[in-house]
Give the backbone structure.
Amino acid sequence: MVRNRRVIIVDDEALARDELAAMLHSRHLDIEVIGAVDGTVKAWELVQADDAIEGIFLDIDIQTESRRAGLDFALNLQRLEKKPWIVFVTGYREHAVEAFQSFPVNYLVKPVDNAAIDRTLDWVRRNFPSAKSEAERLAVRHRIDDPSGEKLFCTEYLDPDEVLYVQKNNGVNTVKIGLVSGGELDGIDGTLKEWKMRGFFQIHRRNLINLQHARRLEPRIGENNVYKIVFKNSPVKLDIGPDFLPALRERLKAP
């Protein structure tokens, strides 16, 4: 399963913060922007309050502080026992040599394009493995049946490995979860996109699956190139959308 990498954005320009956050959200589902602030004082407060912050996208010239505020902040971060990685995002090339004294992942000059961010984060993923804690669980608030007809809700704490599939309900922004044990949790607020960000694999516009439980592809009788997914030790079979089939084949072959 994929654990989100928690990052912050530090830039005194609101538009620059918003554009970068949107870029990360649309293309990098494992990157979670938990704060976008306009100065290093607020950034330091976030870092002190949350030791799970893995990375910082950092401007250098903070007009309310100084032309080199980002550099000074980056050097101060080196004193931390657990240092977040840094990507400088700045409008000035001339700081590059000094910036590398703080060992950043990259130094990007505005305007930053998607390709530069993609290459930078690919390097991060290769060099900063994101190991999931064994204690990490999913808090799932779902609807339960009550004899009186009243809507009641309960929160289950699941190991991701217990989840077999996630399925979108028709007409509403809720999903249901099928469990390896055979049970089902329904009426869960949220979208497939949110569950895809947690590492589940999309096989249909309505279905995500836990790949580790997938066994094989099974053709639907009388229909060419139409398949269902069959799971290990489960009678459940789910439709696979044709558009998702090639990527699924590749993932099933991967070690």
